Amino acid sequence: MDSGESPAAVRAVHLGMTSLIGLGAAAVVAVSLPYWLPRLVVALRMRLFARINGAEGIAVPGDLVDATQFLEVYSHPAAGGRSRGAALSDLFWYWLSPGAHVHQEHLERGPRYDQVVRCTRRILSMPSQAAERLAADCVREALPDRTGLVRLRDLVMPVWAEFYHRLVFDRPGTDHVRQLIVDNADDVITALKCCGLRHMDTRLRLTAHLERVLDHVPHHLPTLLDRRERAFYLQGTFFNTAVVQSSEATAHLLMVLAADESLQRSVREDGGLDRLFEETLRRFPLFGVAHRVTTGTMVLPTGSVIPSGSVLCFDYPEFHRTGGYIPFGVAANRPCPAWHLAPITVKAVTSELLDRFSFVTSASHTRPMPNRGPCLMWPRGTAVPLRAPTLVLLRLRDRWEDVGRSVTQLVLGAYMVRQARRLRLCERYFESLDQVIPQLRQ
């Protein structure tokens, strides 16, 4: 060769260059992972869930029912079935166990449902000013002594555990009881978001406690439920759903404020929290998809017919994107029972926190909020050392956590969907009722 280099040396150079190019390409792919892998995995997860769940469900709004008919269909008397006849119910019952069969959101219409609705309404009935004072008191009593980098949902969950304990029992909760409620609520929402498996031992510890102290509840509980079912009812309605949804709403509102410090100052100095709360729930609705089962044939103005037994899947985020706004559902079809109390108390808790602390975030903010609302928080009026680099690290941490979390959600979500279909908790419950009721009539 003209250069005097041996063929072996040339091959070594080529191999070295190829290796460097390969390493460079791998580095580019690795660095870019947070920008494309989570979205890809989410899309794959949705396709996998759709395949596992089958073709059940009519999307609303969708091809058959557009956004202009959303409220009409949602309010239709025939859209009143809740659990029975929907394979999707097996999944929600799996996530909400134990006691999903007496959860207010999943009970079918009838005397038991009517008693539960009336009891919930009595417990949640409270003058607005009293609710504001109670919410502020619970912040002072139960807010963890924590500043710096926090997860907002985790930060406020003990506050809501205390609030709903006082609402149900009319007395403060102990640290131990509050932790039981937080552990239970966190386990439920973590499983719902497919970020972790459910831990029934954690949930049943709260059930056992509630069953022991049931006689201390100063409200008339539903008489058509047995003692254990009353404990399940309190656990599901107040210490699962109410605590989780209030925590998520507060975290969403604080994340919006933390992302815009000028907005944070404006809200503190000039008010406007009411308007911001509404806009936050418009952008980040607490409910994703709510399903209903038709109990009769539904004829639409377009001439389309929805047969009895169809599963309607009402997509809240999609309806909001078209300009609709139903943060707490529709009045004619099982609206959120805390539709009056929740806005008052969430804003009261947020105002109390804004008076005491400043918030800033560089983390992503999505409706599901699987990252639990990462935020930098510090006492108002004090300086924050290394603020800029902390926010850079927060952003990087959040992006890389999203990579691992998206894979976790894919794997655990597929596992839990299959488990729910195998256990058939909802379907088996109604099968057992069908066997028992004829015997009782004999």
Describe the structure.
α5 crosses α13 (341-356) and α7 (175-192) packs across α8 (200-212). The protein is built from 15 helices and eight strands. It has one domain (57-441): Cytochrome p450. The strands form three sheets. It has a three-stranded mixed sheet. A three-stranded antiparallel sheet has the order 2-8-7, with helices on both faces. Strands 4-5 form a two-stranded antiparallel sheet. The chain is mainly alpha-helical and 442 residues long. It is globular and about 90 Å long. A hairpin with a 5-residue loop joins β4 and β5 (305-306).
What can be said about this structure in brief?
With 442 residues, this protein is mainly α. The protein has helices spanning 7-53, 70-74, 87-96, 111-124, 128-142, 152-169, 175-192, 200-212, 227-258, 261-270, 273-283, 316-321, 341-356, 387-423, 425-441; strands at residues 58-60, 148-151, 289-293, 298-299, 305-306, 311-315, 357-360, 374-379. Strands 1-6-3 form a three-stranded mixed sheet.
